[in-house]
Amino acid sequence: MNLSHNCQRAFLRAIIGCSLGLASVAGLHAQPAAPTSSPATGPAESSDPAPTFAAVPLSDSLVQVTGGPVNIVVLVQPEGLLLVNGGPKAQAPALKSFLAARFPGKPVKVVFNTDWHPQNTGFNETAAAEGAKILAHENTKQWMTTTIHCKWREQTFAPAPKAALPTETFYTTGELTFGQQKVTYGYLGPAHTDGDIYVYFPTPNVLVAGDVVTSGSYPILDYTTGGWIGGMANAAGTLVGLAKEDTRIVPAAGPILARADLVAESDMLSAMRDKLVKMMKSGMGAQDIITAAPTKEFDARWGSPERFMHNVYQGLWWHVRDLGGVI
Predict the structure, then answer these.
(1) N or C: the chain end with fewer CB closer than 10 Å?
(2) How far is CA 223 from CA 22, 149, 277, 312, in A?
């Protein structure tokens, strides 16, 4: 049975209104997730302006900077530094001081943004003021130039200053040589947002995956700016294909992951996409799906599904014509 347009609207109202029901029904099967500062859930914008940064070596030339709400990856070469993400703007002065003390005489030359969210792009203006090149997908730059009303976060983001915008954008894939190191990067499609990218360092075999990959919690799908579960499943599959058996994966926040963790997330996303689309096509209403607790087989690993489920439904309806047979 197909859902009518009125049923679609009722479905969305029920999803929003039944968030407590989702927590109580699906959450019955969940184990509490470890506390996380996952940037997409909100804490990043209120981050401590003076965090305690630490440098964790990934190789003799690659470092993971921890202590803030996001992982910052730094490639160290004779001519300077290449960063993947830079933390929120409030922490930019602290990060600048930390990098200068930890890597004296090495200016920041390149910064990659894995998506538009402020916790990933907050160092742009500081780096660009010193001549750094800012690299991102074109969609990331476009989102940074407009006002974004993010309903699921109940937050509005103003356009970024012109000085904070990416200075170079791309649409598909690319590579560059920084010092003696080759760096490859590419677009992951609409997944967490519609501007997600990966950055891969072949020599140390480290893959930076941004918010497409999470540790200890369900991933966040920012449907306001193009994220949805179909694209997220595709992106995770792309990352699995890129990773070797011994590749280390750096998520947006949390500890380094192995390829097996990436495979587990890819399998979960594919299974949830197929399951939820099937339920919607069968005519199940919001409460029916909530009661069915479709995430229960994954909750022990991924934690509470409340935010995940809410955003998945919203994103699916935005892509309902791609699914076929729903309305």
Answers:
(1) N
(2) 19, 11, 16, 8
Q: In the predicted model, is pLDDT for residue 41 greater than 90?
A: no
Angle between helices 229-242 and 306-318 (to 10 degrees): 100
E-state strands within the chain: 54-57, 62-66, 72-77, 80-84, 108-112, 133-137, 148-150, 155-157, 168-170, 173-178, 181-187, 197-201, 206-210, 248-251
Segments forming the whole domain that contains residue 296: 5-323
Q: What are the backbone dihedrals phi and psi of residue 82, each rounded to the nearest 5 degrees, phi first?
A: -115, 125
Q: HSE (CB half, 13 Å, CA atoms) of 155?
A: 14
The 10s digit of each residue's pLDDT in 230-248 is 999 999 999 999 999 999 9
Upper half-sphere CA count for residue 129 (Cβ side, 13 Å): 10
Q: Residue 200's beta-bridge partner residues?
A: 184, 207
CA distance 86 to 195: 17
User: Is 168 strand, coil or helix?
Assistant: strand
Amino acid making up residue 11:
F
Count the domains in the chain. Answer: 1
Q: CATH number of the domain at 101, please.
A: 3.60.15.10
Q: What is the pLDDT of residues 115-136, one digit of tens each?
A: 999 999 999 999 999 999 999 9
Per-residue model confidence as pLDDT tens digits over 205-223: 999 999 999 998 999 999 9
The predicted pLDDT at position 300 comes to 96
Q: Which two tokens stand for residue 253?
A: 């926040």
Q: Which pLDDT belongs to residue 326?
A: 58
Extract the tokens encoding 86: 């830079």
